[in-house]
Amino acid sequence: MRFPVPGSWFRVRVQVRFWVLCSVFVGSLFGAFALRAHAQQPRTTKDAVYSAAQAKRGEAVYKDKCVACHGAKLEGDFGPPLTGEAFLGIWGGLSLSELVDKIHNTMPADAPGTLTRPQVLDVVTYILQANQAPAGAADLAEAALKQIALDLMQAGPDSMRRGPSGSATTAASTTSFPPTGTVNQVMRGILFPSSNVLFDVQTQDPGAQAKGGGAHPEAAATTARYGNVYEPWQIVDAAAISIAEIGPILMTPGRRCENGKPAPVDRADWQQYVQGLVEAGRAAYKASQTRDQATVSDVTNVISDACANCHRVYRDVPTNAQRCTP
Ligand code: HEC
Ligand code: HEC
After folding, report:
1. DSSP string spanning 1-15?
2. Which domains does the chain have, with CATH numbers?
3. What pLDDT score was predicted for residue 262?
4. Ligand 1 residue neighbourhood (C-beta within 6 Å)
5. Which of 35, 192, 297, 299 is an S-S bond match for 27, by CB 3.0 to 4.6 Å?
6. pLDDT (tens digit per residue) in 179-201
7. What is the C-alpha separation between 111 and 205, in angstroms, rounded?
8. How far is ligand 1, taken at its centre, from the CA of residue 103, in Å?
């Protein structure tokens, strides 16, 4: 068993990883930046926004296309639960159009894009019904989706709470980083690629590669070896989520920069840059969920700006010793 010393090889490897991460976003730069703003949402799912007959149709879709992964009671199985706090924590406060789009673009996970829009609307009303949203007289219509906020919060002291902006709050901190992905997605985004690099060390000697300039074929080989495990869009999802979830990691007190200086986590501008990157990651995830190349291409500008904002101040300074200091 070998334990490579984190010297120059390590740095190069980290840099390669970063470019691997960034390269999934590289694409053609066209199309309009389509990040939708949260408009005022005058209605909520408490306002009887669908009919019982529609939920009944949705139940049939659910039993045919969803039950295998999400469970007979929507309690979750292979896929996450579609009721309860775990679900509400992600979707509470967002607009119905986002949930409809998510399902339309990415579900059923084994055959995305196969449901018609009316089928998606129907199945969403079945999910609403399962979350105790009241039924009314009229069907839920496409035109209303953006105006209706998901308000399915259950009573109880331990419920996960979300404000209208969709941010979860904790008692301990004022800056919060609500989850964007499932544990699985975080694993894919952060731990899967990192651990593959470590697993590879078991069979390939990182010290054996050619020193100095040129390509690093072992990095390409690793990517190729695991390249077909996940669907390309899932990999884009995971890359976005790895950025959206980076907040706590960049805010961990006591983390040091290479020159020994602590990451300036108490400084307001650092916090603002981290927050900016997290928001960019969330925007990228949202873009990825559209399964539209141009939408994702557009959001890459937001990502690179968020990186550059912080680098300008804390990295790209005249000497290494000045890094991570104001
Ligand atoms: C082959 C398994 C599978 C099928 C079939 C499937 N899903 Fe999923 N679903 C998943 C997985 C895995 C995830 C988590 C990853 C993701 O969000 O893309 C998920 C996520 C979701 C989410 C987001 C949940 C959250 O907490 O963020 C919703 C909503 C959803 N599915 C609805 C549906 C609906 C409605 C159907 C039927 C039309 C369906 N799914 C069919 C596997 C499946
Ligand atoms: C909150 C501040 C901050 C943000 C946001 C940030 N970085 Fe950094 N980055 C740094 C600092 C500080 C360093 C230098 C760390 C050190 O010297 O230990 C660094 C170093 C790096 C390095 C290593 C460069 C080298 O010299 O080897 C890469 C690569 C990098 N960042 C990429 C990114 C990317 C890509 C993003 C955006 C997705 C990003 N960073 C966002 C602060 C940030």
Report:
1. ------SHHHHHHHH
2. 45-149 (1.10.760.10), 183-322 (1.20.120)
3. 84
4. 65-66, 68-70, 78-80, 82, 87, 90, 102-103, 106-110, 115, 123, 182
5. 297
6. 565 555 645 766 555 454 544 54
7. 40
8. 7
